[in-house]
């Protein structure tokens, strides 16, 4: 049994809004169209691609020899008809380039049903939303039982002669199976796959990337620090100098907010902690300011391939009062970290514990980082 595959790629991708045909959008290492071709190539004897008018040469060069390129039509159905006109297989798969990641396995399962004698086969997923039929005035007409509804995908498989007949008698539909249905034919539904979902808007590319195992990896981290107040020390906190406040002990400037943030970032990225990166065995950091440590930490995080989404720090102590300088603190931290989103809050502990008794100051921070 010989199989032709028609890949409908003649759409303009209006909703995607890239200004180029959607099939030519890049997803990881290749275009959507190349993804679609590579998953059907192992099972098809002939591959036909319908292109937007004027893109025939570019697409032909992109795909190389052995792919039949035909100009598409004004509608998807018209494009498929142009492909059908040159199809040589006894059976035909009709596929959307926009469902770029549909697997070879799915196509194989469609073909298996055709081998079983089915005339039309469509993959589908159960719908998750309740679907309503509405009228043109915006009122609900009915609510079909969700359990009976499925969401249709491609590749759809057909006996070529049956699909040709269906296209000859009923010309427009959003999928090919609908034309078979209109002609009274039986359409077999098989289990579809999430990765065959259609790419319509730029947001769908993130989902597609995660199907390729290239999604964003998101990680959080937590860090804390505490220092006791010390005589004759300047107070540095959240990257700022606090001239009227008593400072804290420590071999650095004792900026607990900066230290907690660094620890949170190191935790999120699996890079160890403040001690392992800037500890006493790294004399070049002795006495380093909180700002410098945050700068160095951000550089290490970046070098590891992570981007900082945000950091949040809470300062725990009776003083200094943060409120009046909160905006300044946020700006100082954000600038040290390379312009990330920062929040700074403060709390006391109702007179309890070391900071409540006024013996020192502490901070707790969280960080969110991501890696493509
Ligand atoms: N398609 C086609 N010929 C057309 C219209 C659409 O071959 N005249 C193809 C598209 O290239 C796509 C598939 O049919 O692979 C499904 O269509 P859709 O997702 O709607 O893609 P576009 O029409 O390109 O997108 P939009 O509707 O946002 O413009
Ligand atoms: Mg369209």
Automatic annotation (TrEMBL):
Asked whether the UniProt record includes Iron among its keywords, one would answer no
Q: Which residues bind a divalent metal cation?
A: 225, 227, 259
Which stretches does the entry tag as region 2-C-methyl-D-erythritol 4-phosphate cytidylyltransferase? Answer: 1-218
One Pfam match, by short name? Answer: YgbB
Task: Tell me if Repeat is a UniProt keyword of this record.
Answer: no
Reactions performed catalytically: 4-CDP-2-C-methyl-D-erythritol 2-phosphate = 2-C-methyl-D-erythritol 2,4-cyclic diphosphate + CMP; 2-C-methyl-D-erythritol 4-phosphate + CTP + H(+) = 4-CDP-2-C-methyl-D-erythritol + diphosphate
EC number from the UniProt entry = 2.7.7.60, 4.6.1.12
For the site labelled Positions MEP for the nucleophilic attack, the residues are 146, 198
Gene3D superfamilies named in the record:
2-C-methyl-D-erythritol 2,4-cyclodiphosphate synthase (3.30.1330.50), Spore Coat Polysaccharide Biosynthesis Protein SpsA, Chain A (3.90.550.10)
Recorded hits in InterPro entries, A to Z, give:
IspD, IspD/F, IspD/TarI, ISPD_synthase_CS, MECDP_synthase, MECDP_synthase_CS, MECDP_synthase_sf, Nucleotide-diphossugar_trans
Q: What cofactor does this protein call for?
A: a divalent metal cation
What pathway does the annotation place this protein in? Isoprenoid biosynthesis; isopentenyl diphosphate biosynthesis via DXP pathway; isopentenyl diphosphate from 1-deoxy-D-xylulose 5-phosphate: step 4/6; Isoprenoid biosynthesis; isopentenyl diphosphate biosynthesis via DXP pathway; isopentenyl diphosphate from 1-deoxy-D-xylulose 5-phosphate: step 2/6
> What positions does the entry give for 4-CDP-2-C-methyl-D-erythritol 2-phosphate binding?
225-227, 251-252, 273-275, 347-350
Q: Which chain regions cross the lipid bilayer?
A: none
Listed A to Z, the keywords are: Isoprene biosynthesis, Lyase, Metal-binding, Multifunctional enzyme, Nucleotidyltransferase, Transferase
Which parts of the sequence are marked as the site Transition state stabilizer?
A: 15, 22, 251, 348
Which residue stretches belong to region 2-C-methyl-D-erythritol 2,4-cyclodiphosphate synthase?
A: 219-372
Annotated function: Bifunctional enzyme that catalyzes the formation of 4-diphosphocytidyl-2-C-methyl-D-erythritol from CTP and 2-C-methyl-D-erythritol 4-phosphate (MEP) (IspD), and catalyzes the conversion of 4-diphosphocytidyl-2-C-methyl-D-erythritol 2-phosphate (CDP-ME2P) to 2-C-methyl-D-erythritol 2,4-cyclodiphosphate (ME-CPP) with a corresponding release of cytidine 5-monophosphate (CMP) (IspF).
Concerning HAMAP family, the annotation shows: IspD, IspDF, IspF
| Protein name per Swiss-Prot or TrEMBL | Bifunctional enzyme IspD/IspF
């Amino acid at each position: 049994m010989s199989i032709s595959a028609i890949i409908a790629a003649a759409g303009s991708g209006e909703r995607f809004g890239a200004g180029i045909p959607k099939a030519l959008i890049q997803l990881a290492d290749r275009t959507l169209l190349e993804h679609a071709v590579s998953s059907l190539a192992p099972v098809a004897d002939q591959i036909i691609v319908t292109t937007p008018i004027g893109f025939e040469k570019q697409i032909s060069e992109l795909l190389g020899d052995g792919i039949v390129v035909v100009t598409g039509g004004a509608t998807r159905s018209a494009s498929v008809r142009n492909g059908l006109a040159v199809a040589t297989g006894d059976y035909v798969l009709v596929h959307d380039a926009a469902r770029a990641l549909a697997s070879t396995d799915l196509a194989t399962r469609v073909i298996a049903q055709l081998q079983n004698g089915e005339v039309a086969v469509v993959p589908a997923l159960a719908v998750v939303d309740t679907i309503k039929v509405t009228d043109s005035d915006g009122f609900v007409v009915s609510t079909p039982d969700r359990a009976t509804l499925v969401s249709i995908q491609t590749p759809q498989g057909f006996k070529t002669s049956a699909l040709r007949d269906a296209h000859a008698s009923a010309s427009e539909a959003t999928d090919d199976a609908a034309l078979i249905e209109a002609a009274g034919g039986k359409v077999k539904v098989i289990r579809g796959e999430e990765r065959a979902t259609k790419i319509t808007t730029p947001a769908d590319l993130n989902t597609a990337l995660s199907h390729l195992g290239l999604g964003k990896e998101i990680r959080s981290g937590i860090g804390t620090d505490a220092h006791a107040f010390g005589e004759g020390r300047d107070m540095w906190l959240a990257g700022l100098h606090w001239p009227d406040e008593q400072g804290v002990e420590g071999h650095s400037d004792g900026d607990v907010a900066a230290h907690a943030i660094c620890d949170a970032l190191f935790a999120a990225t699996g890079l160890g902690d403040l001690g392992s990166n800037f500890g006493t065995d790294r004399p070049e950091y002795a006495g380093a300011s909180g700002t410098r440590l945050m700068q160095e930490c951000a550089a290490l995080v970046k070098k590891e391939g992570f981007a900082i989404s945000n950091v949040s720090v809470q300062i725990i102590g009776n003083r200094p009062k943060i409120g009046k300088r909160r905006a300044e603190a946020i700006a100082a931290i954000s600038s040290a970290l390379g312009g990330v989103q920062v929040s700074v809050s403060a709390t006391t502990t109702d007179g309890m514990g070391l900071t409540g008794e006024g013996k020192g100051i502490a901070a707790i921070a969280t960080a969110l980082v991501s890696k493509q």
